[in-house]
Design brief:
The complex is a heterotrimer of chains A (282), B (155) and C (775). Chain B has 155 residues and is of the alpha+beta class. Chain B is built from five helices and five strands, in the order ββαβββαααα. In chain B, strand 1 and strand 2 form a beta hairpin. Chain C contains 20 helices and 29 strands. Classes of the chains: A alpha+beta (282), B alpha+beta (155), C alpha+beta (775).
């Protein structure tokens, strides 16, 4: 592709300015998705604005209130290998560990994954189950969008033109909550045929907190807060979990694609939701 | 055309590249380093694996222009003074090489693994190689080669 | 001429590292895409966007106007010479009708690849759509769209039999009287089995580099399994004398049958001719999935009758192979599948009828197994079902009916060497079969384990081959066979055979790269033939060189040549007189400067064993009369099935093969393990998904071949050696067999684990899940 400009700004403000200045400019972080698209000529940007050289944009920090702030250019490998994240945010750590293959994890970023908005990718369901918030940067400033509202449709997010994901903010899990990411795929490293991101806190034999989001079950992660609320204060029995799974299945609208038919994916939901929750029920 | 200065196998190179040119294209077409292979151009097969600042990465998913200041090692940088590395020699001996097309990527990935982890288990090796496809060998002898190399490397 | 006695074998039986391994580990191996020639252009091919239609018009003007484009060629500009290995039904570029999505219709040469690919989008071709057919049953209906209106006129290089709409070949093999035999049977089990297309998915795609010289001779470098096929195809397609076509093999990044017939070579030559410059044409990965060829999907109905003690009485097979849009190797693939269908068992009554049918999809052709995996699935699944019905252990059922040395194959060819029973016995022991059948403990709740078995036979052989062994002035050798090493290690194996025959260390053998200018004719690498067929030729040529060395020595030592022997280290000596000997180099010096002339050992052969016996068997429409040596094997697989998802994990595999003699055991193991993993992909993870005639998943992202974590490390090759008298040092082939029995072994293991008896491959999680819930 001739005459495409390439920029490596050193501040987020400069990156935003460059993005706004050129019609058809795209930003790039790890490139693990975008460069594949460039190679296949699926996109033909007028300019590329790299976020890779902005110091601090990939910084991972724990806030005083226990919130985790993951900078947009933090790689999957860094998130997966962080002892602190594994200890306090196990759902996030486990998710990052299951993305694709080691070389992709070494360079792919959470910001890139989130901005791409593929419901069969791994982060969206985990972030929705975690009640994470997506921090969006623009020349106007910053705004926060809850993950559940950020993923709007298949490959479509709440990002407006000229906006960049700057961080993912994950609230500290409720006391005693355990997290698990169950990814079912055809082969190792593939996109999920169906995934279940689950958080569960059991206190005195009853649910104190429960959150379940499904990946690859529709155009966006699928979650049913009302069905979850019905379990609070109740024991997580097989029947109770089955009811939650049924509610999720009713809300799901998976595609028919090479990884499986819609009917199959829906059919998997009860068994995989049960399996995911069983893994963290104690 | 962006200018980029990077180190390749210990040598400093300054290249004028297209913005959308991959590191794979730059290595092969501009530097004549053909050991890094094109298999899918999509980041799945791993035959384009190089070490970027010591970490295995897909050269076909890396923009050449983004490699400024980076230290790139290709398969051509594994041998020293013409002498095969411990990993290369182990691949020679265990029958890990059939058609050879996945071999450079496998060797570099193994070298990076053994630098991080001196005595990996069979499972550790299989996990490390999980991003490199081989259509010929069935993987077993490649795993054997990595294990043999780990046994031979100084502690 | 048979192999010398197997006693002092020297290099034979040694785990010698590949001759070319250094360049491969150093990254210096030259594959076709690594080659650069001065002023080289880059080529690209345009494929049809529709599955069936007539071309109304071509307009190249916009493409030619793009800066950097040096040539655009379309079908009518090439001679209308039809090509095809069995039925000459295709052209290098379409002239009238496109028959599948991806059918090559035009090609471009430009200064760089990006420009060439952009130019493809600027070629304007107008099509008139025709109704298309994608299913073999539909294609045979009286009113189905007809793909090849001129089928009757096509040259067929074998006595083809065909009838019915879109049917290109029918093969029939029958022995005994199947129809009468059912009455003798205590039990009859029937089934229908479907197997999918499979993409070769070698990590290196197809490609070629063509360059003309000033005298009008073209050199074609390509990743081909046969330089002679390339030479012939280029000559035939473009009307260039073979004397003006030189085909050279580069290093090959995997073949598996997908690089056996020409792909990019003819078009690369046409572009080089048009532009007067070298042209390199490498297929992209998605073009590899859509433009060239795949394995035949097939549907096989099988019926087996037996006595209640498990003795097989009668078997009947009815198969339809989906040939795609062009015949390619279909008559051979389907015919071979029919020949092998019976399996390595004693079955007095047999009837196999197969047909190959055109559909508007990518052509299907040679792929490791060559029609055998499709019938092996049906045959071995059906035998397992029979065992279950009879209450006999499936391995015992195979043992009971297994072929023994001296038995005949279907069609009457006597098989003198058969190690099948030893394969089964070793398999039973190595896999701890009896314990695994009784009490399979799953790794965790919600999973179920089971073990399954399949036997297989295959052919090692076919067609013509030759070898030249030249002795050099220092007593080293040049070995030239024209056989292409596609990564399976044949160069090393052949060098070992040569070195062992001539009693020299392998370092003294130089292997000449396959080159039609220099090499003697070799049909190609495939059919598991190189070790056996080419190896035989190498032995003969080496023995001939050895005789000539003795003859020169007899002149010097003044004795009879029959008093002389070859000795380790490369000497000719007087029998019984140690120390009375001459090194080979001295004899060559004598030949070049005193008397005798250069020492050149040659051989030329075709498989000369017994063919089919028309008194024993009916054979019609089968495109070969004799093939080669039979090879045998047995495979066992332990699987674990996830009850929630239906996913099948392969836990461990045991694969026992009678290879006659393992010339290089490390290479034999590697071929078995590689074949097994390719078979696991075929059985479980590789699913070509169609939308009408379009491949929906033409990428590694969406078409999944197994990675290191998708297969067990524990894949145990078990080498059995029952010497094949006609083979070099007793050896025969193993290139394909590793794949053949894996599908049914997995299917049978799934049945053992879950009770579910599947009949459609691949056994995807969805299929297994659906079947588990259905019954």
């Amino acid at each position: 592709m001739a005459d495409v400009a390439y920029h490596e700004p050193e501040t987020l403000e400069r990156a935003l300015a460059l993005l706004g200045a050129t019609e058809g400019a795209r930003c790039i972080a790890g490139g693990q998705t975008l460069v594949a698209m460039l190679n296949a000529r699926l996109v033909e940007p007028a300019a590329l604005v790299s976020l890779a050289r902005i110091p601090g944009l990939g910084r991972i920090a724990g806030e005083a209130d226990g919130t985790l702030r993951i900078g947009a250019t933090a790689t999957h490998a860094v998130v997966a290998e962080s002892a602190a994240i594994a200890r306090d945010f196990p759902l996030i750590a486990e998710t990052a560990r299951l993305i694709a293959h080691p070389p992709i994890r070494a360079f792919g970023t959470i910001g890139g994954a989130v901005a791409h908005g593929d419901p069969a990718s791994d982060y969206p369901a985990a972030l929705v189950a975690s009640d994470a918030v997506i921090e969006i940067a623009s020349l106007e400033g910053r705004r926060n969008v809850p993950a559940a509202a950020f993923f709007v449709d298949y490959l479509t997010t709440a990002l407006d033109p000229g906006e960049i994901v700057s961080a993912v903010i994950v609230p500290h899990p409720p006391a005693g909550a355990r997290g698990h990411f169950l990814k079912f795929s055809r082969v190792d490293g593939d996109y999920a045929t169906l995934s279940v991101a689950a958080m569960l806190a059991v206190r005195n034999g009853t649910c104190a907190h429960i959150a379940v989001a499904l990946g690859a079950a529709g155009p966006v992660p699928v979650r049913d807060r009302e069905a979850e609320r019905a379990l609070i204060g109740k024991p997580p029995t097989r029947e109770a979990i089955a009811a939650l799974a049924e509610a999720l299945a009713a809300k799901s609208d998976p595609v028919d694609d090479v990884r499986g038919s819609s009917a199959y994916r829906k059919g998997l939901i009860p068994g995989l939701v049960a399996r995911a929750l069983a893994a963290i029920a104690n | 055309m962006p200018d980029v200065t990077l180190t390749v196998n210990g040598e400093r190179e300054r290249l004028a590249v297209d913005a959308t040119e991959t590191l794979l294209d730059a290595l092969r077409a501009r530097l004549g380093l053909n050991g890094t292979k094109l298999g899918c151009n999509q980041g799945v097969c791993g035959s384009c694996t190089v070490l970027i600042d010591g970490t295995p990465g897909r050269a076909c998913l890396t923009l050449a222009a983004s490699c400024g200041g980076r230290d790139i090692r290709t398969i051509e940088g594994s041998a020293t003074g013409g002498k095969p590395s411990v990993v290369q020699q182990a691949f020679v001996e265990t029958g890990a090489v059939q058609c050879g097309y996945c071999t450079p990527g496998m060797i570099l990935t193994a070298e990076a693994l053994l630098k991080r982890q001196r005595k990996p288990s069979t499972d550790d090796i299989r996990h490390a190689l999980s991003g490199n496809l081989c259509r010929c060998s069935g993987y077993a002898k490649i795993v054997d080669a990595v294990r043999l190399a780990s046994e031979r490397m100084p502690a | 001429m048979n192999a010398p006695p197997i006693a002092n074998t020297g290099a034979v039986g040694q785990r010698i590292p590949r001759l070319e391994v250094q360049e491969k580990v150093l990254g210096q191996a030259l594959y076709v895409d690594d080659m650069v020639r001065p002023r080289m252009l880059h080529g690209a091919i345009l494929g049809s966007p529709i599955p069936h239609g007539r071309i109304r018009s071509w307009d190249k003007s916009r493409a030619l106007a793009l800066p950097g484009v040096k040539a655009v060629i379309v079908g009518p500009e090439l001679a209308p010479h039809h090509l095809g290995a069995f039925i000459k039904d295709e052209l290098a570029l379409v002239r009238e009708k496109v028959l599948y999505v991806g059918d090559p219709v035009a090609a471009v040469a430009a200064v760089d690849l990006a420009t060439a690919r952009t130019a493809l989008t600027l070629i304007d071709i107008e099509y008139a759509d025709l109704p298309a057919v994608f299913d073999v049953e539909e294609a045979q209906k009286a009113d189905a769209p007809l793909l090849h209106e001129n089928f009757e006129k096509y040259v067929k290089v074998f006595p083809a039999e065909y009838s019915g709409r879109n049917v290109l070949s029918i093969s029939t093999i029958a022995e005994g009287n199947v129809d009468a035999a059912w009455a003798e049977c205590d039990v009859i089990v029937e089934g229908v089995y479907e197997s999918p297309a499979q993409a070769h998915a070698y990590i290196e795609t197809n490609g070629a580099l063509a360059e003309f010289d000033a005298a009008g001779k073209v050199t074609v470098w390509s990743c081909t399994q046969s330089v002679f096929k390339v030479q012939a195809a280029v000559s035939e397609a473009l009307g260039i004398s073979m004397a003006k076509v030189r085909a050279i093999a580069t290093r090959i990044g995997g073949g598996f049958g997908g690089k056996a017939e020409p792909s990019a070579q003819i078009i690369a030559v046409a572009l080089a001719r048009e532009t007067g410059r070298p042209v390199k044409l490498i297929l992209s990965r998605d073009e590899e999935f859509t433009m060239m060829r795949m394995r035949h999907p097939a549907k096989v109905r099988v019926k087996t009758g037996a006595k209640k003690d498990g003795t097989l009485v009668a078997r009947e097979f009815d198969a339809t192979y989906d040939a795609g849009a062009y015949a390619d190797d279909s008559p051979g693939v389907m015919g071979f599948g029919m020949l092998m269908a019976r399996g390595p068992y004693r079955v007095p009554h047999l009837k196999c009828v197969g047909r190959a049918v055109y559909t508007n999809k990518i052509r299907t052709g040679a792929f490791r197994g060559f029609g055998n995996p499709q019938t092996a699935l049906a045959s071995e699944a059906n035998l397992d079902d029979l065992a279950a019905k009879l209450g006999i252990d499936p391995l015992d059922l195979r043992l009971k009916n297994a072929m023994k040395p001296g038995d005949t194959w279907a069609g009457g060819q006597k098989v003198d060497a058969c190690g099948l029973i030893e394969c089964l016995e070793k398999l039973r022991k190595a896999s701890d079969w009896d314990r695994r059948r009784k009490a399979p403990a799953a790794s965790q709740p919600g999973k179920r384990r089971g073990v399954g078995v399949a036997c297989l036979a295959h052919i090692s052989g076919v067609l013509a081959t030759s070898a030249i062994v030249r002795v050099l002035e220092d007593g080293s050798f040049s070995l030239n066979t024209g056989a292409v090493d596609i990564g399976q290690g044949s160069d090393t194996t052949l060098a070992q055979i040569c070195a062992a025959t001539l009693k020299v260390p392998i370092e003294r053998v130089n292997l000449v790269n396959p080159d039609t200018d220099a090499s003697p004719y070799n049909w190609g690498t495939g059919a598991s033939r190189v070790t056996y067929t080419v190896g035989r030729a190498v032995v003969q040529a080496a023995v001939s060189a050895g005789e000539q060395l003795k003859q020169r020595a007899s002149m010097i030592l003044e004795c009879a040549a029959s008093d002389l022997e070859l000795r380790e280290g490369g000497l000719v000596g007087l029998k019984g007189v140690p120390g009375k000997e001459l090194p080979y180099g001295a004899l060559v010096g004598f030949s070049h400067y005193v008397a005798g002339g250069p020492i050149i050992g040659t051989s030329a052969l075709m498989f000369d064993g017994p063919g089919f016996d028309p008194k024993r068997a009916l054979l019609r429409g089968v495109p070969f009369s004799n093939l080669g040596a039979y090879v045998f094997g047995a495979q066992a697989v332990e699987v674990e099935v996830d009850e929630v998802t239906g996913k099948v994990d392969v836990i461990e595999v045991w694969s026992a093969h009678d290879v006659g003699k393992a010339i290089n055991p490390q290479s034999v193991e590697g071929q078995i393990q590689g074949g097994v993993v390719q078979g696991i992909g075929y059985a479980l993870t590789e699913d070509v998904v169609w939308d009408g005639g379009r491949v929906v998943n033409p990428s590694f992202m969406d078409y999944k071949i197994p990675g290191s974590l998708d297969v067990p490390y524990a894949i145990h090759p078990i080498i059995v050696e029952h010497p094949e008298a006609s083979g070099p040092f007793g050896a025969k082939g193993v290139g394909e067999p590793g794949l053949v029995g894996v599908g049914p072994a997995i299917r049978n293991a799934i049945a053992a684990a879950t009770g579910v008896r599947l009949s459609v491959m691949p056994f995807t999680p969805e299929r297994v899940w659906t079947a588990m819930r259905a019954g």
